[in-house]
Structures are given as C-alpha cells and as structure tokens.
Short-chain dehydrogenase (Hypericibacter adhaerens), 280 residues
Amino acid sequence: MFQTDLLKGKRILITGGGTGLGYSMGQRYLELGAELVICGRRTEVLAEAKAKLEAETGGKVETHGCDIRDAAAIEQMLDAIWAVRAPDVLVNNAAGNFIARSEELSPRAVDAVLNIVLHGSAYATLGCGRRWLAQGHKATVLSIITTYAWTGSAYVVPSAMAKAGVLAMTRSLAVEWGGRGIRLNAIAPGPFPTPGAWERLVPRADMAETFGTKNPLGRVGNHRELADLASFLVSDGSGYINGEVVTIDGGEWLMGAGQFNFLNALTDEDWQALKPKKKS
Ligand code: HXC
Ligand code: NAP
C-alpha cells in the first residue's frame, strides 16, 4: 500500500505499544522505516514485544516502563527519550476500560479509566508539545479514540467521557499549535479484536461474535487496516490534515444511527412487493 520508506527517519513514541493495536501500529511503522519507542507499565511485556518486533522487522525498538497516570514519570521518560533524539510522532494509544453498570461504579473505578485515558494522554501530549515548541521541532500527535467519543455508549461511561476529552484536546491543540508545526489527529476505531479489549469488554462468550454483526460489512476490523491508516496520518503526505478524526469501523456507528437502516433485513421479495404496480 505504501512505499517501504514512507516513515524513514521518523522516531515514533507509542504509549501502550507493547500489546494489541499499539503493537500492530508499531510493527507497521517499523516495516515502513521508522524507529520505535514504546512504553507501558509492564516491563516484561515491553521486553517481549521489543524482541519480537526487532526479529520480525529488523528495526530498532526502545522501551520505557512508565505509568502514564503519573505526570512526573512521563516527564522523566520524555527527558530520557529526548536525550537520545527528539521523537517526531506521539501516538496516544494506552487506555483502560471495562464494562459495568454505571450506578455501580465506585469513585476509584471512574478514576481508573479517566486517569489513564484522559489525564495520561494530556500529560504525554503536553510534555511532548512543550519540548517540540521550545525546539521548533515539527511533529504530529495521533490519538486512538473510539466512535462512542461522540455518540456516547452505555456501560463504558468513563471511557466515553475520557475519549471525548481526548477528541476535544486534539481539535483544540490542532488550532493552538498547528501554526507552529505540530498537527494533531485522531482515529476512531470500531471493533478490532485484541486480548486486552476482549477480556474486559466481552461479557459472555456467546457475545464475542456480536461485534462483527453491527456494521454493514459484517466483520470486525483487521489490525493491518488500522495500522495503515495510522501510518498515513503520521506521514508527511498527510501534512494538510489537522484536527481531524478518521473513523474506521466498517460503517458501524452510522448503521446504528440511520432511521431506515433496519430495512437491511428486507428480502428481495419484500422489495419486489413494495414496487409500484404497473398501470394496465
Ligand atoms: C467495576 C471495576 C472493574 C469492573 C476495576 N474496577 N474493574 N469496577 N467493574 N470490571 C474498579 C476496582 O474495583 C477499583 O475500585 C478500581 O476500578 C481500580 O481497580 P484496579 O484493578 O486497582 O485498577 P488498575 O490496576 O489501575 O487497572 C486499571 C483498569 C484495568 C482499567 C481497571 O482494566 C487495566 O489495567 N486496563 C488496561 C488495559 C485495557 O483496559 N485495555 C482495553 C482497552 S479497550 P474500588 O473502588 O473497588 O477500589 C478500549 C476501547 C474498546 O479502550 C472499544 C471496543 C469496541
Ligand atoms: P490493550 O492491548 O489492552 O492496550 C492497552 C495498552 O495500554 C496496554 O499495552 C497497556 O500496557 C497500556 N496501558 C494501560 N494503562 C497504562 C498506563 N497507566 N500507563 C502506560 N500504559 C498503559 O488494548 P487495545 O485493544 O490494543 O487498545 C488500544 C487502543 O485502541 C486504546 O486506546 C483503545 O481504547 C483503542 N480502541 C480499541 C478498540 C478495539 O476494538 N480493540 C476499539 C476502539 C478503540 P500495561 O498494562 O503494561 O500498562
């Protein structure tokens, strides 16, 4: 899909890059010539991901154990990353989520999600932005949100609140920083199976298949499809896209919204019967 040197020379930091979609984006970035930095809380997961990614792609991966809820820890990590070389891209990918009836959420449960998704993404973005602006370094931020950042969703309310906040941050800073060489965009994925998401968000085994039935394409997303979009959006070729959010959900949220979308269930015979009768 791309020239193999699309991201050559770029140094890219992905939060939560040791697992799931973060791993898949990192793998594609390496294939396209980038140098990768990944962070997460579990250093053993990062070490395993580094070994696997380097073996798969021949690229270079730097890892940092860092809890993005801790602003001081992020600052320390960014100092260490900048000491090697300033990154050119930040991908806000790390997240926390679970399903629950909202009236049963404790304050700590609300904070657990907001602290990772909203505060963590803000600390990382502001920490990188401050450094980039001071150096006049051109850069880009890509945040992985969800389609329910604008529709909202029952049973994942803290996540919906946090992702909506990350979207607001993206659009606000796209204007505040765009003129100084920093553009910010977001991707809103529909369902892309990962162990991290599925073990927390699939309530019963018989519901796992449901995710693939809620869009007109009748399937879930492939990681490569998301990784290619994420590559385009951080590449120089997308340099005029700023403050945008690109949905990649097979049409899922629109299918839930359109008044007459339920007519997908009609058969050919139903449609034939609805045609006006020819006047004789
Ligand atoms: C109700 C819960 C809960 C649950 C935790 N809590 N899980 N409450 N239902 N299922 C409550 C706990 O009881 C506790 O409150 C508080 O939350 C903090 O719990 P901890 O286990 O101490 O939290 P912590 O160790 O900080 O872990 C954070 C986490 C965990 C979010 C709870 O799941 C995590 O580490 N997640 C990271 C990865 C992840 O979530 N990936 C999925 C991303 S998918 P009390 O009051 O009891 O002390 C995604 C979008 C998917 O974001 C969209 C799909 C289409
Ligand atoms: P995942 O594999 O569980 O990824 C979450 C990552 O975030 C993990 O690597 C985790 O590593 C890291 N993380 C969590 N808390 C952290 C913290 N406090 N500090 C640093 N890192 C932290 O889930 P995923 O499905 O790939 O999700 C990736 C992104 O896509 C998320 O933003 C999610 O909201 C979004 N998304 C996913 C889907 C989907 O269908 N999968 C759909 C829409 C949006 P540690 O636990 O080691 O810290």
Remarks:
- Residues 11-273 form a domain with the Rossmann fold fold (CATH 3.40.50.720).
- The pocket of hexanoyl-coenzyme A (ligand 1) is lined by residues 95-98, 100, 106, 108-109, 112-113, 146, 159, 191, 196-197, 200-201 (CB under 6 Å).
